Amino acid sequence: MVRFNVRLIKKLLLYGSVTILLLYLISTFNSPVHIKVSVPEDVDVRQTIGLKPLPEVHQYKEGHEIIDPVLNRNKFQPEVPNKLSDGKTYEYTWVESAKLRRAREEVEQKFQEKVRDLGNDQEKIKESGYSEHGYHSHLAETIAINRDIGDKRHPQCKNGGWPSDMPKASVIFCFHNENLVVLLRSIYSVLMRTPPELLADIIVVDDASTEAHPDIKQPLDDMVALMGGKVKVLRLDQRSGLIKARMAGAAFSTGQFLVFFDAHIECSHGWLEPMLERVYHNPTTVVCPCIDIIKHDTMEYPNNAQQEIQKGGFHWGLIYKWIPLNATQRAQGITAPQASATMAGGLFGMSREYFYQLGTYDEEMKIWGGENLEISFRIWMCGGRLEIVPCSRVGHLFRVKNPVSFPDGSDTVSRNTRRLAEVISNTSLDGRV
To answer: How much is the pTM?
Structure first.
């Protein structure tokens, strides 16, 4: 007698329906036609896709209210006509003050001495860094915080000529137990290589780093206090995870263009303007820079400008992966912005208004994992567009392993992936609709 596994059959049917939906979405990525969702004015966008409504006031620290600055987030706005560039060239005029320079040099000297005190066993020192941060952090501590990485752009990207009224950006870093030198190098790269008139603020969100990492506490505050007021630290009282930390940073920021960065990156010259221009022409476009790989063992930032970019895809287990461009996309040229099915999630930017109209992140997802695919699918399904912009280049220090523990040892990646499958299919994995 043949026995059937009912739960297995239900799961196969669910994944089959999800696959059909995602294949349909992929078929539209190279088409100029957007999938539009009609939303009545009195209906919250989040409710239409199965998410909880956002509260009107976010409370992140005792006695400190952060009001959602977007007053009308329940309606999608029509795309605006393309505006012509008036050929503006933005100046990089940020200057490190004498006090900040001395403080930076003191931090660099302190960490270099710490590395020397570790001894001469280079392999042991290397493994110690990998164990703590997932990369050779002790080597990173010996490199200047304000190091010059050179211009990583393709020559075709250096012509300039931008609209003169592009919005100001807020750059949001989120971290938990990050290496101080690497975090400061990330912040410095934004300050040094971003036109001040395009930078509203930099919000550094500490997702409840532990007392085992004291360097990321007061020493960070002391450095930020000397950075001129545009850099602010927001510390969460309890571990909330990447998703809620980014939502807190967005609410705390003031810019009309939001950039979300991991806390171990380095911006190249001219990274912001190409991203801003795409959203300036179409506010429902979400943009990702071309992500260059900073080598985890040598901290080298290679020049990859002549290499063809890749776009985002996913495995059928709903895990992100890189895929090559198709022939049509390659024919558009090496510097042309390219539509992408998904984003890696660590580095992207979008209109502040569209972020809230879209419903921000799914608050039911925990800590980290799957949120990049969930928001990618929602962008395309709700009339938006996701692009990778080759003329915007940002280096990312990819970890060989994730050194961060999850609360209670829970597997949030699997949980969030299940949540993603259930939301986009409107079906529960246990068979209930």
So the answer is: 0.79
